[in-house]
Amino acid sequence: MIGNVLRVRYELTQLQSENSLFQTFTAFDKLQSCEVSVRLVKAPYSKEAELVETLQDVVRRVGAVRHPAIEEYYEVDTDEDAVFIVGQITKGSSISERLRKLATFSVPAAIEVAVALCEGLRALHRATLAHGDISGSNVAMQPDGETRLQNAGLWQAFYVDPHGREAMLMAGAAYTAPEVSKGGLPTPGSDMYGLGVLLYELLTGRPPYHGDSALALALMHATEPVPSAKQVNPSIPQALDQMLKKAMAKQPTERYRDGEEMLSDLRMLQDALRFGKSLSWPLKAEDPVSAVTTGADPKATAKAGEASPKSPRPVKLKEPKIEHDAALPSWLKIISVFVLGAVIAIAILFFMVNYKKPAMVKVPRLAYTNFSKASDVLTKLGLHLVKSRTITSEKDPADTILTTNPAPGALVYQGDDVKAVVSGGSQYVEVPDLRGMTTDKAKSTLEAAGLVLDDRTEEVSDRELAEGLIVSQTQQSGEKFERGSRIHVKISSGKSRAPASSDREANTKYVYNLNITIQHEQQPVQLRVDMTDDRGTKTVYDAKQNPDDVVPVVAEGYGSKATFRIFYDGQLVKQKVVSADNADDGSDSGDNTDNSDQQN
């Protein structure tokens, strides 16, 4: 399937994962010039009309839930017999892979992951949706450190077909709540069970139950007591151990109801660890219970206002007479005055510290609002809005707030900082029109757009533009290129000068020969070579190659220089600039290198 193009738009470039129902690919959207994920429904399920209708409903409902911790779905599309879901691309590895490589997570790191997942689940649960398949393979750890849930709600498609439902239950037996294994439908409560199992794994490096088969695991989840994670990892706080037991309770009524309820306890524990406080279980205060006198016999306790007939009449004791004749020694009086003064001073200091403590305010909901407007709102509340991280987003405009920490509804002191993850806009930006500008003006214009002016400029004669002004640009205005791309321009040499040699070369056709060796690869790759000359960029080679193949590439171009970009499976691995003088003997090996290895 790699290399296939669906709907003349989505080019499949890499297989991400596969289960009984879907093959999930990384794909390049040629229309939007960005990467997306494509979940291709496997045969024979793709021919079931009810399953396709269910997918469309799931994508519509989950797609309406916008949260950074939930991978977005865009649409369900078809191409002849193929049915597929187009969605947001998620980079990074799954938590299951991270656990295999790095063993356990620290307590603060595990809680941070659980908080992020609960925030995403809260968004789903508020929309009356259940994720339905919480597991280590469905949680991605992204390169920027953020955590994201994948495959939300797709359990409904599995449940349309009895075989698909059975396959899903067997694959997720290590995380499935007992009531779901017995035939019930996934709910927010069963999501919390799966999250409890996952958090147990993060803290201990192993699952809570071990079985030889899916059936044995399901039986243990239903009958075996919830194990203590603290016995495996003594560094786990007692309160967190109790939270895990509540999340994995056998009965749904004894479990966390949804993501919001567990998120509240996690944040209390997170704050306690941050400030070195200890917590007792349960975390939320309960109503006081009337105390009973220690050692008293309840049967012998008389009702209020009643006197036991056998009880002796109380004897009234005479108060002893206290003598006040003896005077206190002077040294004892001095010490007493000193102690009393110290007590008063401490009381005054305590009052002043608490009196000056700033007021607490509630963090408002700021997601998907402009950063500057949100900053004005927080300033009026006495809070400071700061950018903690900027990430690219193909759907949200630049300076749009995606999430905040603390989250909306949290109580903070006036004067505190609220950290925001902000959209940096699309990864691809439009090239501005540079014609008629000086190079200094072009540099500032490109920097504002997120692009860079190529230092390798060429001079051409022009009858209309004065010397030093830009005559033309290789990347045309209005075209979209990745941020940081270099824009090549030609500069006027003035009216009086003879045409530059480079101007003549721009109209001369040259032949470039390139030998590319497929190295450091274990499997066949889709090799693509793009060439940029004085007349633009075009693909000169695109075919699947085996490891260690030597691929001769012959290309015709215009101008004294041409830039060749070499891609393996859609990923740029090498860039080489070849001059016309040595075009015939230029050779290259497609070693995996980064931009710092580009030849300019």
Report on this model:
The structure is a single chain. With 600 residues, the chain is an alpha+beta fold. 29% of the residues lie in helices and 25% in strands. The chain is built from 15 helices and 28 strands. The strands form nine sheets. Strands 1-2-3-4-6-5 form a six-stranded antiparallel β-sheet. The chain has a four-stranded antiparallel β-sheet with strand order 24-23-26-27, with no helix packed on it. β2 (10-18) and β3 (22-29) form a beta hairpin. The longest helix has 26 residues, at 330-355. The model is unreliable at 285-327, 496-502 and 582-600 (pLDDT under 50).
The overall pLDDT average reads 80
Q: Taking Cα atoms only, what radius of gyration do you get, to the nearest Å?
A: 35 Å
Q: Roughly what fraction of the amino acids lie in strands? A: 25-35%
Terminal Cα separation, in Å?
36 Å
Q: Which regions are unreliable across 5 or more consecutive residues at pLDDT < 50?
A: 285-327, 496-502, 582-600
Shape: globular
Count of DSSP strands = 28
